[in-house]
């Protein structure tokens, strides 16, 4: 079964090195928390807020060992006033036997504000059930 796994992180400044580092760390954590190998990942869609323009986050994923053949695409988020700035979001599609409820979404840095119900104590409480 193909499942979608969400993740997001924020950078502190629009610099290519930070974009690549944070994107790679997020993708790896998403795969690890869900017990996935690159061969099980169908595709990754990456979006950024429009204030990120110094580099392609997809380059980080394509550069990781074993991930060279994972289809990756970048796009921009809608530019909504008041939205979280300098944010990178990932939607990872993966072949897994996990149920929707067992999927572990990953939100890091300031992006934890996007889905507090899926981060920290709330997620741990749900896992314990």
UniProtKB/TrEMBL annotation:
EC main group: isomerase
Domain of life: Bacteria
A molecular function GO annotation: chorismate mutase activity
Isomerase is among the record's keywords: yes
Keyword Isomerase: yes
Enzymatic reactions: chorismate = prephenate
CDD domains per the UniProt record, alphabetical: AroH
Name used for this protein in its record: chorismate mutase
Originating gene: aroH
PANTHER family linked to this entry: CHORISMATE MUTASE, CHORISMATE MUTASE AROH
Keywords for the protein's UniProt record, in alphabetical order: Amino-acid biosynthesis, Aromatic amino acid biosynthesis, Isomerase
PROSITE patterns: CHORISMATE_MUT_1
EC number: 5.4.99.5
């Amino acid at each position: 079964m193909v499942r979608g796994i969400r993740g997001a992180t924020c950078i502190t400044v629009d610099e290519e090195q930070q974009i690549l580092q944070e994107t790679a760390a997020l993708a790896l954590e998403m795969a690890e928390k869900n017990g996935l190998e690159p061969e099980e990942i169908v595709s990754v869609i990456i979006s950024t807020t429009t204030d990120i323009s110094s580099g392609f986050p997809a380059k980080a994923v394509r550069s990781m060992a074993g991930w060279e053949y994972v289809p990756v695409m970048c796009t921009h988020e809608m530019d909504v006033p008041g939205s979280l700035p300098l944010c990178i979001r990932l939607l990872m599609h993966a072949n897994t036997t996990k149920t929707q409820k067992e999927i572990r979404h990953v939100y890091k840095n300031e992006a934890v504000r996007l889905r507090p119900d899926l981060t920290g104590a709330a997620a741990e409480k749900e896992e314990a059930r």
